[in-house]
């Protein structure tokens, strides 16, 4: 099979090294690279988006997902870009839910359009959402995202609760000198709503223009500031995800810290990513990728299972032992 493999040249100059096969149980799908925001760490203001016919249709996404679920994937995250700007997103949720009742079906969203869709998404079978929220200050939100939207995002979070979504998480990318003074406010915000608050390390990406201005806040410092505000962090059993998870001893509030750069979780990574334009990737940062859209569009349907089997086998062996910590990717395409 002619796979199209694009390991990043600087991370793998001598070709692709195949490691032992890993079980892949988690698929993250960027269903669109488009977004109603232009967060400075994610994409440039003048971002050019994929042509519409290069983006996978719902039928193509669903067929790829069906195969991966049959091969052992038990969790799918719908992400983007902003997944809710894709028309008929509820129909896609229904299609993915139809693959298996046992599938964990979750979404990462900026929540600005969630109020409009909350009940339909719940009815369609979406289990849970993670909301990206870096600030509770409207002026700062507009500066960071280059668009206003805080009120809509907050309304989206409340609508999720009203529609019956449980175990919602809010994710804050901590950027030194930009929003790190809001760690206490974010903890309070989440505590008032019974939401798990997670703090994410900023990832330097080729496309972002915060690289030089955002100071890195070391994980130890994030912990210190959480504890200064909320009391002792007590570790709780780590889930399958990348977060180190805690409860605040005094209040029982759940907190997570994700340090993808300083404490990479590559060794135990069980995920693959499907980009909006149909590339299956082994890693956010590097590793290999296979342009399955083109392979599937140019291959008879009877051969699709073989193409996807070979792709998955390849990707499960080409995951980097540890990523190089540099973002050569565009987050909205690959699905952060
Ligand atoms: N639009 C949706 C959202 O913002 O939740 C989903 C897609 S967005 C690319 C997914 C996540 O990637 C968000 O939580 C965002 O904060 C994160 N992200 C984007 N660029 C990042 C960077 N340079 N460092 C860390 N996280 C980043
Ligand atoms: Fe859009 Fe999410 Fe990227 Fe912000 S982080 S520009 S909301 S895709």
Percent helix, as a range, is 25-40%
Largest sheet: 12 strands, mixed
Radius of gyration: 19 Å
Helix and strand run: EHEHEHEHHEHEHEEEEEEHHH
Give the class from helix and strand content and strand pairing. alpha/beta
Shape: globular
- Per the CATH scheme, the topology name is TIM Barrel
CATH homologous superfamily grouping: Aldolase class I
Oligomeric state of this protein? single chain
**Small molecules bound:** S-adenosylmethionine, iron/sulfur cluster
How is the largest sheet built, in terms of strand order? 7-8-9-6-5-4-3-2-1-10-11-12
- Average pLDDT works out at 88
Notes on the structure:
This protein is of the alpha/beta class and 336 residues long. The chain has a single domain (4-334), classed as TIM Barrel (Alpha-Beta Barrel), CATH 3.20.20. Helix content is 30%, strand content 17%. It is built from 10 helices and 12 strands. The chain has helices spanning 58-70, 89-97, 114-124, 138-145, 150-162, 183-193, 219-230, 292-297, 304-317, 331-334; strands spanning 26-30, 75-79, 104-109, 128-132, 169-174, 196-201, 233-235, 244-248, 254-258, 271-274, 279-281, 289-291. A 12-stranded mixed beta sheet has the order 7-8-9-6-5-4-3-2-1-10-11-12. Strand 2, helix 2 (89-97) and strand 3 form a beta-alpha-beta unit. Helix 1 runs parallel beside helix 2 and helix 2 packs parallel to helix 3 (114-124). It is globular and about 60 Å long. The structure holds S-adenosylmethionine and iron/sulfur cluster (SF4). S-adenosylmethionine binds next to strand 3, strand 5 and helix 10. S-adenosylmethionine is lined by residues 35, 41-42, 79-80, 82, 108-110, 132, 171, 173, 200, 202-203, 205, 208, 331-332, 336.
